[in-house]
Amino acid sequence: MKLKFTFTVLAILASLKVFSQKDSLSVYYYENYPYAYTERTNTMPDMGKPKGIEIEIIQEYADWLKQKKGINLKITYTLFTDFSAFYNSVKDAKSIVIGLGSVTRSMAREKEVSFSAPYLMNQAVLITQGSVLSVKEKTNEQINKILGGMKAITVARSSHEVYLNELKAAYLKDLQILFTAKPSTVLDSISANKKLFGYSDLVSYWTYLKSNPNKLLKMQKALMGQKEEIGFILPKNNKHGDYLNEFFESGFGFTSTKVYRQILEAHLGYEILEYVEVR
Known about the structure:
Blueprint: H1 2-18, E1 22-30, E2 37-40, E3 48-51, H2 53-69, E4 72-80, H3 83-91, E5 97-104, H4 107-110, E6 114-115, E7 120-129, H5 140-147, E8 151-155, H6 159-170, E9 177-180, H7 183-192, E10 196-201, H8 202-211, E11 217-220, E12 227-234, H9 240-249, H10 258-267, H11 270-276
Parallel strand pairs: 1-4, 1-5, 8-9, 8-10
Antiparallel strand pairs: 2-3, 5-12, 6-12, 7-10, 7-11, 7-12
């Protein structure tokens, strides 16, 4: 009888352990406002708190894990300001890591990292200075007439670099492509130089115009990219992959909740929500 009681107690303790487990999670984030960024103050310019759409969603995910799985996450955030360094660090990580980098899903990337279900839709748009003529049709004549003799600028290893290389191969054989670490630098450079163009995602472009109403930029609609899915990335075989997909898709999924909509509304304008929210 005593032996049976001992086994019963051990079984209860084991059950309690399952539902009160603690886990560590490293979140790598690439600074790209408003997706994920560090909010700094004048008093502590070298320190700050991670904020943004992706940060708030990962915090909701942590709450979901606690409520649904009994897992209490201890999250450590690591900031990256270079996209290639961020991407490679997630890809090669040995520890439990989730990457927040406004990363668009592609077949090439899916061979290197795992993607969560999408949390946002987006679209690449080709941007020139406002004084540049509009490309009316996606033809060799029009593209060379407007963009010929210009240089392009992009973030290395981004999906925008892929778009530029496709444009170069198809229409602009002599196109020179410049590289920068920050998406905001792409738009700053274009607004300051009539001879530069580049791709931006729709959310970043809209956010930039809101923050810089005096900058004259133009979206070349004839050269827009396709709709893209943006998700979190993880090293292959990361246990959080299944959890994240359940979080985003089980039942109606997180992207159908009021909280999801509130996060987007806090960072984006109503005029852009219909183009980017996951439905």
